[in-house]
Design brief:
Helix 2 runs parallel beside helix 3. The chain is mainly alpha-helical and about 80 residues long. The chain contains three helices and no strands.
Length: about 80
């Protein structure tokens, strides 16, 4: 019984430690970088910025539409 508790406790500790050490950006961080890349790109440039890779097409489209409205001074 003690071995099972010890094993379970150690496994949980390793899982918790592993989730906090990820070098991958979160989805929210990717979205923030994408929004900044869209704001910074030169007028007339087409194509999806590399910083937007990892976003769903729906979310990318929403960010792109928002940036277009800002560029046209139709949104704050």
């Amino acid at each position: 019984m003690r071995v099972r508790i010890l094993t379970t406790t150690l496994a949980a500790a390793f899982l918790l430690a592993g989730t906090g050490c990820s070098d991958e950006p979160s989805y929210e961080e990717i979205a923030e970088r994408c929004a900044q890349a869209l704001a910074d790109r030169a007028p007339g440039v087409k194509g999806k910025p590399a910083d937007c890779e990892g976003l769903s097409e729906e979310d990318y489209g929403a960010l792109l539409g928002s940036q277009i409205l800002k560029d046209e001074s139709l949104a704050p």
